[in-house]
Amino acid sequence: METIVYNAKGQEKGRLELPAFFSTKVSDILLHEITTAYLNNQRSGTHKTKTRGEVSFSGAKPWKQKGTGNARAGQRNSPLWRKGGIIFGPQPRDYYTKISKQKKRLSLNMAFSAQLQNGNVIVVDSVKVNELKTKKVVELLKNLKVEDNKVVFAISNDAVFKAAARNIENVVVENIKNINAYQVLWADKLVITPEAIDLIKERQSI
User: Are 135 and 163 in a shared domain?
Assistant: First the structure.
């Protein structure tokens, strides 16, 4: 399968034969599973409510059992009372979901394939900038006509370009060696370089 290669000015430069993993059959079930697992693994799990044994109240009986006309009450930390404990509230927990290496690799292949099928993959010969200036990245986005989209740059490690793009909303620069299926699917437009394709080609080929 071939695709057009653009230069930094958005002009067509040539064509590139894409690796086989860009033609992987897409499974919505697996992509949903991987996406859910990724989001679960981002959760800190530090949520906490206090039980009736943890709220700060005296253990004294609010009023005597009989004769006041009020309902019976034993302690002010009752969940029925304002500022009392919480019944079955959230407690700290680990949301980590294990994903096998095979599923990680296959889901990434599917994510690339899905984005290509939807016309959301843009191959650019180079995204390097000469200086650490955000306007250089903004100019590139305009040339590629993706400035109003959520854009993921899947490129080889480039600290200067990543720093130049860090203040632009909805633009993510990710090392191709670390990219995952969720990031690929999150993007409205996936910008990738031939160099990055070569770097991940061997690892992703099945």
Answer: yes
